[in-house]
Amino acid sequence: MRPAGRHALGWWGLILPAFLLMTAFYVAPILQVLAISFTEPQPGLGNYERLLTSESVQRVIGTTLRIGVVTTAIALLLGYALAYRIALSGPRAQRWWLLAVLVPLWISVLVRAFAWVTLLRRQGLVNQGLMAAGAIEQPLALVWNEFGIVVGMVHYMVPYAVLPMLSAMREIDPRVLAAARGLGAGRAGAFLRVFLPLSLPGVIAAGVLVFIFSLGFYITPAILGGGKTLMAAEWIKLQILDLIRWGLGAMLATVLVVAILATLAVFSRLVNLRRLFGAGG
Amino acid sequence: MSGRAGHALSLQGLSKRYGSFVAVQDASLEVGSGRFLTLLGPSGSGKTTILMMIAGFVEPSEGRVLLDGRDITAVPPERREFGMVFQGYALFPHMTVAENVAFPLRVRRLGRAERDARVRATLDLVQLDQFADRRPSQLSGGQQQRVALARALVFDPALLLLDEPLSALDKKLRAELQDELKALHRRVGRTFINVTHDQEEALSLSDEIAILNAGRLVQVGAPSALYERPATRFVAGFLGRSNFVEGEAERDAGGIVLRRGGTRVLGVGEAPPGPALLSLRPEKITVLAEGEGEENVVEGRIAAWSYLGAGYAITVATADLGELKVHLPAWRIPLVPAEGMPVRLGWPRGAAVAVAEDPA
After folding, report:
1. What is the dotted CATH code of the domain comprising B9-233?
2. Could you state one GO biological process linked to this protein (chain B) (predicted)?
């Protein structure tokens, strides 16, 4: 074996304990649970047949995908504007901006969901404000529906959208933008032809990250959806804990895991995800 | 690259202050049509700030920029129609060479056929037609520099601005591209404005050099005029090397006479009676052979010497004038130098030029 190869083996040896620990206490139990989808209530692909036949399963998947796509689109839009603003500000201002972006991450998702309920419910601040201003006669249904879920999820996801995009934007040489303007492009032209294409890898990475997160959301949709709009995670909980249909719940969980891995596999070919998620190199 | 002539640029009383820091102080300059002007100065002298004010990226605190007599001070950079080669080139990494060069035409919404034709012609001009489909990252430094030039020239700009265009290249390549740049300037007949801290580059490329120090324009003129008749100590020291001799000056018919200790040095130029300064280029001093004379003669001893192949660099300690550095071609030296050896130095009157001290 070449020295370099032996060297690499040494490094693998170092992470072996952690690897075994993860396999024994994390990967193996998950696989065990997912395997239930093939064994309960009877062995076979019966649970997976429901993907094609059961309207309620299809509705849950449809809702989950729809909310995921809408959330991703809005979070990317807001996040891009924010990241752009941060990337163009001075180093001092950048630190404050970043703090402002990161602070919400330290607040419990539960607290944030209930905060949105207080704001958005019929007697909440938003409806009361709009009614006092005379903009509306009747309170709007802002919560306990898909709108409320999307609001809560976008709020949660924006920091995750900002960070990969900001890291991509920071790598853009500001002289390239000056060059675009010096060569005759207006502000809009320089942005559309130079800045946007150069930041695109960050947008894709942020999109993948946010979309994957959105598929597995549980607390936010459970609280802001009011039990009426079911997303995949809540549906799985319902099957397993309330209806004791382990096989069906495990089936959708497996579908989720496979969907996420497939998304990652596709996009890792498009962009260097390792670098964009901060693994360096 | 059709027959539009170069344009004339005029700077009038241009200043730039950042808070209490003065980056550029009252710079006025005329650049004639089709000329190659270099702004030369050490880092922090304000040369890049002046270029950025010409390009429109930096707004002057005072003063005006005129193109062919028209005030363009308030015109944004993208409307000035100036080509610019940026420091480090700033090529667009997500575009091919051809797309980079086509960029200025694309934002001007030129038709596709004309765009392609112009891109091809310009790539030909800089001999990069083979590389049209490469990415900038696949090119060498010299090739990238030529892409930047092509991109800056393709839209027939009124002026070409170059911000340290050769500083990213190694020494040998720099010399080659200097020649290319000079030939390109002659071929396209545009007005070029170049910024550099490299005095050799400035001397070899320019029709005119403007020397800057600490935000002020110190002297403007043809390279040889600046080299032969520097106005201040800074110019004499920055453009080439120089010995400086301080003393008391008097006027005489041929220029000035500088007295220091028991030695009188004849020089040219203007200086009011009183303390004055002469600049003396090392290559204009000769070591005199037995019986040889000169307008100025000084005796001394060799304090240090080194052999440079083409010649010798000798430091001579003199009684009144301090140490003088002398550069001599090997064939002009009448002796084999050795430390402590007594020598007689001589130089013509015109070699000693009165220069002013720089304002503090």
Report:
1. 3.40.50.300
2. putrescine transport
Return the amino acid letter for A160. Y
Query: Is A271:A204 a contact under the CB 8 Å cutoff?
Result: yes
Domain range list for chain A: 62-276
Using CB atoms and an 8 Å cut-off, which of residues 192-251 of chain A contact chain B?
193-194, 197-198
**B107: helix, coil or strand?**
helix
In chain B, residues with a C-beta closer than 8 Å to the C-beta of A191 are none
Cross-chain Cβ contact A179/B94 below 8 Å: no
Is residue A176 within 8 angstroms of chain B, CB to CB? yes
Element (H, E) at A76: helix A55-87
Confidence (pTM): 0.79
Asked whether A166 and A87 are in contact (CB, 8 A), the reply is yes
For chain A, what percentages of helix, strand and coil (3-state, to nearest 5) are there? 80, 0, 20
Q: What is the pLDDT of residues A86-126, one digit of tens each?
A: 998 988 999 999 999 988 888 888 999 999 999 999 889 99
Q: A186 contacts in B (CB within 8 Å)?
A: 78, 107
Q: Please check the confidence at residue A258 and state whether its pLDDT lies above 80.
A: yes
A109-120 helix and A146-170 helix, angle to the nearest 10 degrees: 130
Give the pLDDT confidence of B248-277 residue by residue, as tens digits: 998 888 889 999 988 899 999 888 888 999
Residue B15, CA distances (Å) to B65, B66, B82, B217 in order: 11, 15, 21, 11
Write the residue in B93, B94, B103 that is nearest to A183 by C-beta: B103
The hierarchical CATH code for the domain A62-276 is: 1.10.3720.10
Q: Per-residue pLDDT tens for B188-237?
A: 889 999 999 999 899 999 999 999 999 999 999 999 999 999 999 999 99
Q: How confident is the model at residue B102 (pLDDT cuts 50, 70, 90)?
A: very high
State which amino acid sits at residue A128. Answer: Q
Q: How far A89 CA lies from chain B's nearest CA (Å)?
A: 17
Domain B241-355 class?
mainly beta
Dihedral over Cα of B193, B199, B203, B208: its sign: positive
B140: three-class secondary structure by DSSP: coil
From the list A181, A193, A197, the residue facing B78 with the nearest CB is A181
